């Protein structure tokens, strides 16, 4: 009977919930609440291997939107070359694959003007080219469950000296 009481108490404190940011496991231990936000993403080592890894869901800033990926296609001109380290320039591995992606805006930053919740957008990414995320180099990252788009026009209107990543020019509403 003691174990049943402990289990019942534990399960009242543990709950799975769906949020705009994805799967969340929330549990309470004493006075501390713990939350874990992760997503699946395709990773390559440049040696012909590809695998799924759990990485944090990206957190948008006030000029960004969080997007749920709807689809991503493998580009033979880029993704395949990333997988086999055959691009004509040096790559840092491991990396997040996929740049032919489309996603749906599920959360909008407070200063975003170009996108709204429910919009379908081209090329969301958890990290922009030339950056790293969760220890992985961005190879556009479209083969992940979530990504970001940036409203570069709103950012530049408020901060004329800002330099948004060049990749933001491809992030358009469909």
What do you see in this structure?
Strands 1, 2, 3, 4, 6, 9 and 10 form a 7-stranded mixed beta sheet that branches. A 4-stranded antiparallel beta sheet has the order 8-7-5-11, with no helix packed on it. The longest helix is centred in the first third of the chain and has 12 residues, at 2-13. The protein has helices spanning 2-13, 79-83, 152-158, and strands at residues 15-19, 22-29, 32-44, 50-56, 64-73, 95-96, 100-108, 120-122, 132-133, 136-138, 146-150. A hairpin with a 2-residue loop joins strand 2 (22-29) and strand 3. The chain starts with a helix and ends in a 16-residue tail after the last helix. It contains 3 helices and 11 strands. It has 174 residues and is mainly β. It is globular.
Layout of strands and helices, then pairs:
Blueprint: H1 2-13, E1 15-19, E2 22-29, E3 32-44, E4 50-56, E5 64-73, H2 79-83, E6 95-96, E7 100-108, E8 120-122, E9 132-133, E10 136-138, E11 146-150, H3 152-158
Parallel strand pairs: 6-10
Antiparallel strand pairs: 1-2, 2-3, 3-4, 3-6, 5-7, 5-11, 7-8, 9-10
Largest pleated sheet: 7 strands, mixed
Rg over CA atoms, rounded to whole Å, is: 19 Å
In DSSP terms (H or I, runs of 4 or more residues), the helix count works out at 3
Helix content: 10-25%
Morphology call: globular
Q: What class do helices, strands and sheet pairing give?
A: mainly beta
Mean pLDDT: 83
Measured by DSSP, the beta-strand proportion falls in 35-45%
Spatial separation of the terminal alpha carbons: 58 Å
Question: Would you report the number of β strands?
Answer: 11
Low-confidence stretches: 1-34
Q: In sequence order, what are the helices and strands, one letter per element? A: HEEEEEHEEEEEEH
């Amino acid at each position: 009977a003691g174990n049943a009481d402990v289990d019942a108490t534990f399960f009242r404190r543990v709950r799975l919930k769906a949020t705009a940011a994805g799967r969340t496991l929330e549990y309470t231990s004493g006075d501390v609440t713990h939350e874990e936000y992760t997503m699946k993403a395709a990773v390559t080592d440049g040696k012909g291997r590809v695998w799924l890894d759990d990485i944090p869901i990206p957190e948008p800033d006030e000029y960004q939107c969080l997007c749920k990926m709807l689809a991503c296609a493998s580009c033979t001109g880029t993704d395949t070359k990333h997988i086999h380290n055959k691009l004509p320039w040096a790559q840092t591995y491991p990396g997040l694959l996929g740049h032919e992606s489309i996603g749906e805006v599920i959360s909008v930053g407070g200063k975003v003007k170009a996108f709204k919740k429910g919009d379908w957008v081209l090329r969301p990414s958890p990290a922009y080219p030339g950056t790293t995320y969760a220890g992985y180099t961005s190879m556009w990252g479209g083969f992940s469950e979530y990504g970001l788009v940036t409203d570069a026009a709103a950012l530049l209107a408020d901060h004329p000296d800002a330099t948004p990543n060049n990749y933001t020019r491809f992030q358009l509403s469909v």
